[in-house]
Amino acid sequence: MDYPKQSAALTAHLAQTSGGRGIAAVKGIKRTVTELKDQLLFIDTNNTDYIKMRNAIEEGKRIMLEHPEADMSGFTKARPEP
Hints:
Blueprint: H1 8-11, H2 33-37, H3 48-66
């Protein structure tokens, strides 16, 4: 959550030329670059679905930071020790 743009959900099926890992969305044997390009979910970071996912991850980070859990700085809902 510290770096939403580096999320595994975003980078897995993003083309390597755009900073992703370039994993095909279809299982099977190794493919050529041309074949792989047709099977990636995101060719670049301008893809509408990529942007929607990135925005959702960034919103999740914002909400998480507004409501910190016990292992995060800013946590204030601890019960007093007995």
